[in-house]
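Each letter names a residue; structure tokens follow underneath. Both lines appear below:
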Amino acid sequence: MPVGLRDLSFPELAVTLAAWGEAPFRARQVWEWAWRHLATKFDQMTNLPAGLRARLAESFTIGLPAVTARQADDLGTEKVLLSLADGQGVEAVLLRGGDRRTVCVSTQVGCPVGCPFCATGAMGFVRNLTPGEIAAQVLHFARELREAGEHVTHVVVMGMGEPLLNYDSTLKAIHNLNEGRGFRLGARRITVSTVGVVPGILRLAKEDLQVNLAISLHAPDDALRRKLVPLGERWPIAEVLAAADRYAHATGRRVSYEYVLLAGVNDHLDDARALAALLRGRLAHVNLIPFNPSPGLPFRAPAAGTVDAFRRALVESGVDATVRRSRGVAIQAGCGQLRVSSARRPDSPHLST
């Protein structure tokens, strides 16, 4: 059965073509078609011999997932639900802001973590994505932007799933997007977000890769965090912070701490002061994210004044903090929301799990 061409690394592709008796330069040509020219058919690879194109078509697939649902708002935020080869659906989001064109990608269908304020967590875990399926979300929007003379400038691995619980596929997708013969997206333009999978953070710290790390913290103490992030039972805050410190020391990169503000739950000034006590003196930045409402979830966003007061309390305590104003609220661009709403429609049987 054919496998995804973009599931291969460049060395793997080169070994495969060498075993077929092809000259070494053919691997670079195929790679460029897949990653730079964004080809979706082998017939488009016009500088390859017809026989090689035919053999590639017999052995690999190169098409991108079809869009089964799409939403967009007036600010340029666009969210798509992509149908994978097995009929599962996965979300990707394009965020437009100034000169930035940022793609938010998923790494799993569903999520095994089960955070109660996240629509993806509510759907449970289905499976990991392959490296090619992760990268395909970026390439989908890259092809779209190309039509407007634009390109993807940043990638955030913050969509459905926990990236560090699908470590190998996530890192391979990042390496492939970063590879200099193809897509050539700089590592410092890529951010990996995790709820705090300590072994994955420590492993990432040993990679020779300057990606940004974001930790989804969401609470200033273990008692509350265990309620909001179930993996907090396994890795308490002290261990997560120690691993993040290791990453910052190894890479010289500032770590971002994501903090979703939930009205009446974790948005009190005492919470801000406790959070500041944890992070003061660390190479850290806090992204405050007012909750993005989702049907069926028992949370709401704090008032704007509460959010601003929380930020001021952090800054006055010596911790750098900004408020990430929710993008895509009108189109429910939070993780998992489009997949859940599409699955409820009777005309979307391919999304059933």
User: Anything to note?
Assistant: Residues 344-353 have pLDDT under 50 and may be disordered. Residues 279 and 319 are 7 Å apart (CA to CA). The domain at 66-351 is CATH 3.20.20.70 (TIM Barrel). The two ends are 24 Å apart (CA to CA).
